[in-house]
Amino acid sequence: MDFEQPASSQGIGPLPHDSGTSFRVWAPNAEAVYVIGSFNGWSKKQHPLSRDKAGVWSADVPGAKPGDEYKYRIVAGGKELLRNDPYAQDLTSSVGNSIIHDPRFDWGDDGFQATTLDRMVIYEMHLGTFCKGAGDHPGNIECAVQRLPYLRELGINAVELMPVMEFPGAYSWGYNPAQIFAFETDYGDVAGFKSFVKAAHEHGIAVILDVVYSHFGPSDLNLWQFDGWSESGKGGIYFYNDWRSQTPWGDTRPDYGRPQVRRFIRDNALMWIEEYHLDGLRWDATAFIRNAHGYEGDPGSDIPEGWQLMQRVNNELKARRPNVISIAEDLRDNAYMTKNAKDGGAGFDAQWDVRFVHRIREAIVSADDTARNLDAVRDAIVHRYYLDAFERVIYTESHDEVANGKARVPEEIAPGNAATWEARKRSTLGACLVFTAPGLPMIFQGQEFLEDDWFQDKDPIDWSKRERFAGILRLYRALIRLRLNGDGVTAGLCGQEVSVYHVNHKAKLLAFHRWAKGGPRDSVVVVVNMANALRENYIIGFPRPGAWHIRFNSDAQEYDPGFSGAGASEVKAEETGRDGLPARGSVTVGPYSALIVSQDG
Questions:
Q1: pTM score, two decimals?
Q2: Which CATH homologous superfamily contains domain 494-598?
Q3: pLDDT of 368 higher than 50
Q4: For the residues of 329-373, what is the DSSP string, one character each?
Q5: CATH class in words for 121-221+258-483
């Protein structure tokens, strides 16, 4: 399977030039196609398009220019159909008109390159709620630009945007795209989004975008029976017209077997990377691209051409932009998602790790200390798909985990009172594991200042908590700094190696070692106390004898005056073996707390 098409189908959509605009649209079952718009007084017949043998209709319209509105008038089966351009990058609304957009934009000297995966910290953002909009409007791209300095100070170097493609109405998570090439009008315009990306790059922040190729719509869906043809009452040329059309979100799975549909999706992915200078894509619900029911181990429902689509798009993205980041939200624990395409994999760089989030959330949310399963926590820490520890995105909160009535971690810990001591302690304990376990750490917007309400697309995050929980914000900032080896003494947190070498089920305490090459300023020991009990003078093993410095103590009172501040600033490790390591030392760990420890050179 490839993306090569007859030359006539290259450059689908509106193509403005000095003297006008060329229009091309795929409508193989149409009897006639016209372009109508503000440039011809919406004349129904003034500008007919000519058809080629591939079913692509085209015409050049002198005087049609960026900013002009238009539609296609398609005649088929005795009916007149008014359709927006599937490739339109700008619309008046999801039920309005297409707009010829101006692709020109001053990127300056934007040569930004995202950091490598071992040094990436992701912040998941929903544009509509990251900021509060004016009146009855959601937040927008201009407001988000103003918050970029805050993210830089937090230590974030990658934002992952929930979908920004045109969707019905003003409010949505974005996973119901009506037009996948168009930027959501309620968030701003095309130039505004490019300005956001440019500004993010100037702050050292990569931009990753969620894209939805498992289904389209289902409402305000211009592609539905686009040129009048369909079978069994289904979606027509852009969709499967048999049992494969069905998804949990509607009867709208794209037909990955049609070359033109594959090309449509491929062109969309390339547009975001090349025209918008985005640094990566996160594919939503990939399990439903490769299997009709999203199942694992159900070959009768597999969609081989969906798997091939992912391979081919990922391969082409890498060929054009070797540093592009490709992330799958598959949630089926399938290691082949992140295996190289030449070896049969789907070719993604990383995937969301469902094992980590479920096991860690269960461990920190449980009200009963005795119910905390340290074996499950250990397995979540060490899990990887292949040899590369950074093929997984690890988190305790994402839009899926904190929506549809599912609460944020502090709220799950203490329903109705998410600011309690236990909620603060155990939610930050989860953050400690996110930033010290091997993987790409991700937090959801507001998590860093104890946002507690469950995610809704009409409820912006409460920025007043940034001051109210300033200590918790400092804790996240400190964790991110250590995770990125900001002080040059925790290189092991960027390394591949991990060993959970101490697990005490009775005391609910574990310790693990992270390292890249090992030795001072590299080897990191993380001690995690998952019980509501102070552990004083607790003996554990250490990789080397000598002085080990406490770089971080989540129980420190600088993070919250209600914390105990238990523990010293240094551990003296003696040259006597323990836990299979050559040295041992005594630590004091506060209740529901974690320590990060390393040596100087």
A1: 0.97
A2: Golgi alpha-mannosidase II (2.60.40.1180)
A3: yes
A4: ---S--GGGGS-GGGTS---SEEE-HHHHHHHHHHHH-S-GGG--
A5: alpha beta
